[in-house]
Design a protein that fits this description.
Blueprint lengths: L2 H33 L4 H27 L5 H17 L1 H47 L1
Helix pairs in contact: 1-2, 1-3, 1-4
Length: 137
């Protein structure tokens, strides 16, 4: 195989990797949406920023790798990589990390709830002291 063909083949494999990487990046957004509620306006903003990031990321990669020359097989590689990742790894990735982060948040809420109860009791005690001082004066 010629050096030119091997370089083009390597570029195609990299474009498959870039597609899979972009799907996993979007999965991180999906995980954050599953763990923490987002408004529809914030989801739209996240999606817009994600697509801008994708365009800039792919442009920078292809400009560096191929002097900015776009070829059809690069787009096909990104589509193939993203589809392959979306079908195979993505559902399990999202499900596992959503479960994991929800459990971590549940564990972190325990000390937070204790602190909230202590603050509530301190406020209530302070209110009682204020009432007691007002009635004695």
């Amino acid at each position: 195989m010629s050096a030119y063909m091997s370089r083009e083949l390597l570029l195609f494999v990299k474009s498959i990797w870039y597609g899979a990487l972009l799907v996993l990046t979007y999965d991180v957004l999906k995980i954050s949406r599953n763990v923490i509620r987002h408004s529809s306006a914030f989801v739209a903003l996240e999606d817009l920023l994600f697509w801008i990031f994708c365009a800039l990321f792919l442009f920078a990669r292809y400009f560096q790798e191929n002097s900015g020359i776009l070829r059809g097989y690069l787009g096909a590689g990104v589509l193939f990589g993203s589809l392959a990742c979306y079908v195979s790894i993505s559902p399990y990735f999202v499900r596992f990390f959503t479960f994991l982060f929800k459990k971590i948040l549940k564990i972190l809420r325990i000390p937070l709830n204790i602190v909230k109860k202590v603050i509530k009791r301190l406020k209530s005690g302070l209110f009682r002291v204020k009432l007691l001082l007002r009635t004695k004066l």
